[in-house]
Design goal:
- Helix 1 crosses helix 2 (57-65), helix 3 (95-109) packs parallel to helix 4 (128-140) and helix 9 (254-263) packs across helix 10.
- It is globular and about 50 Å long.
- The chain has helices spanning 28-40, 57-65, 95-109, 128-140, 154-163, 181-187, 204-210, 237-250, 254-263, 278-285, 294-303; strands at 3-4, 13-14, 16-19, 45-47, 77-82, 84-85, 90-91, 114-119, 144-150, 168-174, 214-218, 270-273.
- The chain has a single domain (3-303), classed as NADP-dependent oxidoreductase domain (TIM Barrel, Alpha-Beta Barrel).
- A hairpin with an 8-residue loop joins strand 1 and strand 2 (13-14).
- The protein is an alpha/beta fold.
- It binds NADP nicotinamide-adenine-dinucleotide phosphate.
């Protein structure tokens, strides 16, 4: 497993992250298998959010399972996110909600600190001064070591940075071979013939690279918002053919090649996998040893339905 140092953030973190969004329905034994299999295959970073499962069920299940893994808290990095309050149909970045959410996460996860806390999608009504006060309090209390955001465009990050003292070290955004807007718009720049040129994120990729903000790619195997996986999906024949050819050459799986496509990008991104199947987890962890050449990278991109402008 390849490891990276997040600038101004946690060091020596795995390039592949285990996402825990799908954990709530597992038994604690199966959840322990997921955590341990990920760890044994090089993953040391686990992603949570207060909204994964009713009442933070993913965090509770993780903590229930963790003692069965034989791991110690300091062996791993735990990240959580707050701000998405689906139970009350709103996004909430008030100081009160940020502080209460972190306390809830710590209680559910049975830990004294989060390695990283991300603000999930933006609360349109947020007051950056309140966010700054919340971050100061969390840092001072030792409850959060590093801070970041998820699904934010550059100007939103700039506005936050005007008030928040702590460096924002992560932006967690959607990226897969099929959902590649992060890459498309700059490549098709100014091209009126295609929707790929539409700038939907304010050049988040280049901005994050400029600002040393590590991109975490969520849903790296999915198409659409949560359309399902494109791996072995008959709706994506050309993509699966190219994935299959590279997979055979590299003695890896198609899923590992799809993750390797993200890790091959020079932005040094992390990819957050969501499988709860230990065989699949083991398999996709081999992604960091899959060789994706310059040509392979483009061949995969084009076989997902793109063209060179
Ligand atoms: N910040 C945000 O807004 C946001 C949004 C969504 C997700 N996330 C994070 O991203 C994580 C990953 O999201 P995701 O679950 O959509 O990611 P994903 O890894 O792209 O998709 C996982 C799905 O792909 C399936 N899959 C099919 N073939 C597979 C194969 N060969 N290997 C591995 N998986 C295969 C898995 O099924 P099996 O379980 O059967 O393997 C699982 O249902 C979440 O857990 C969460 O932490 C963040």
């Amino acid at each position: 497993m390849k490891h990276i140092d997040i600038v101004n953030g946690p060091q020596n973190v795995s390039a592949v992250i285990q996402g825990c969004m799908r954990m709530p329905d597992l038994s604690k034994e199966d959840a322990a298998k997921v955590i341990r299999t990920a760890y044994d295959n090089g993953i040391n970073f686990y992603d949570h959010a207060t909204c994964y499962g009713a009442d933070g069920a993913a965090e509770s299940k993780f903590a229930e399972a963790f003692p069965l893994t034989g791991l110690k808290r300091e062996d791993i990095f735990i990240q959580s996110k707050c701000g998405l309050c689906f139970d009350r149909n709103e996004f909430d970045w008030t100081k009160e909600n940020i502080l209460a959410s972190v306390d809830d996460s710590l209680r559910r996860l049975k830990t004294e600190y989060l390695d990283t806390l991300l603000l999930h999608r933006p609360d349109v009504l947020y007051d950056p001064e309140e966010v700054a006060e919340a971050f100061d309090a969390l840092e001072k209390a030792g409850k959060v070591h590093f801070f970041g955001v998820s699904n934010l465009v550059p100007m939103q990050i700039e506005l936050l940075k005007k008030y928040v003292k702590q460096p924002l070290v992560i932006n967690q955004v959607q990226l897969s071979l099929e959902q590649s807007q992060l890459i498309d718009q700059a490549l098709y720049m100014n091209n009126k013939t295609t929707d790929y040129s539409v700038n939907r994120d304010g050049n988040a990729l280049d901005y994050c690279r400029l600002m040393d903000i590590t991109i975490q790619a969520w849903s790296p195997l999915q198409f659409g918002m949560f359309g399902g996986s494109f791996i072995d999906n008959p709706d994506f024949p050309e993509l699966n053919r190219t994935l299959g050819e590279i997979a055979e050459r590299e003695n890896a799986s198609k899923a590992a090649v799809a993750i390797a496509w993200i890790l091959r990008h020079p932005a040094k991104m992390q990819a957050i996998i969501g499988s709860m199947n230990p065989e699949h987890i083991k398999d996709v962890c081999s992604a960091s040893s899959v060789n994706i050449s310059h040509h392979d990278w483009y061949a995969l991109y084009l076989s997902a339905g793109k063209f060179l402008p």
